[in-house]
Amino acid sequence: MDKKVITPKTIDDLEPKMKVAGKVLKTSLAGAIVDLGIGVMGVIHISKLSKEPVTRVADIVSEGQEIEAWVYRVNSEAGKLELTMIEPLAVEWKEIKPEMEFKGTVTRIEKYGIFVDIGAGRPGLVHISEMAHGYVQKPTDLVKKGDTVDVKVLKVSHKKKQIKLSMKALEEPPTEVYKEEVLQTEKEEPVPTAFEAAFRQAMNGNGNDRNDILASFDA
After folding, report:
1. Which of 42, 73, 134, 184 could disulfide-pair with 81, CB 3.0 to 4.6 Å?
2. Same-domain check for residues 80 and 111
3. Rg (the chain; Cα; Å)
4. What are 66's strand-pairing partners?
């Protein structure tokens, strides 16, 4: 979607979602007529003046006012042009499919993952298990609110308007799997008694010493 204002020369230069500028020539109960300077007047229906319900066109625009709007529908052959003052979605829900890749903004962080705005009106969820190939203790170890991240669509429900995204799907998996090392504290061996020390020494010594120790058990 165009962020900059386009200056068209003819209606053939226009496409949906293009941002344009013009002057309101006339208002009515149904909406407003806008001159873009291309010989074809653009029409903004009252429902396209604002996201909020509008009861009077005059509350939003007035004749002679310079405005910015977006192309909603255009039919160059019929010479018809419909405009909207509601910024279109960067991505339409019907266009979103698995395997598609987007660059989005982290809008919310929860213990179980993060929500990323990809321009579809509602953010998608990156579960904590999809944030990286390795273990992630908490999402804030990797991102913070407002960060820009690259994501891949895993699953989309057009009916529920839910998107499951992944960050790790766009990363190269590690070539080796490193297991987390578990540190174990060695137990201190008890101090041997005099007899135990002598027994160990004898068992490691010559045969006569071993015989003397063994004979003491028979005594």
Report:
1. 42
2. no
3. 36
4. 23
In the predicted model, residues of the chain with pLDDT beneath 50 are 177-188, 213-214, 217
Query: In this structure, what is the dihedral angle of CA atoms 55, 37, 5, 107, given to the nearest 10 degrees?
Result: 20
CATH number at residue 53: 2.40.50.140
The length of the chain is 219
Question: Are residues 80 and 11 both part of a single domain?
Answer: yes
Whether residue 213 lies inside any domain: the answer is no
Same domain? For 157 and 102 the reply is yes
The domain of 156 spans: 93-170
Instruction: Kindly report whether the global pTM for this prediction surpasses the value 0.90.
Output: no
Give Cα separations from 42 to 3, 18, 83, 140 (angstroms): 19, 13, 6, 47
- Distance (Å, rounded) from C-alpha 146 to C-alpha 68? 27
What's the pLDDT score for residue 92?
85
3-state helix, strand, coil in the chain (%, to 5): 20, 30, 50
Q: Read off the pLDDT of residues 66-113 as tens digits, 9 standing for 90 and up.
A: 999 999 999 999 999 999 999 998 888 888 999 999 999 999 999 999
Distance CA 139, CA 110 (A): 7
DSSP letters spanning 122-136: SPEEEEGGGS-SS--
Indicate the residue among 58, 84, 110 that finishes a domain.
84
* Structural domains of the chain, count: 2
Domain boundary among 32, 52, 84: 84
Q: pLDDT at position 159, please?
A: 86
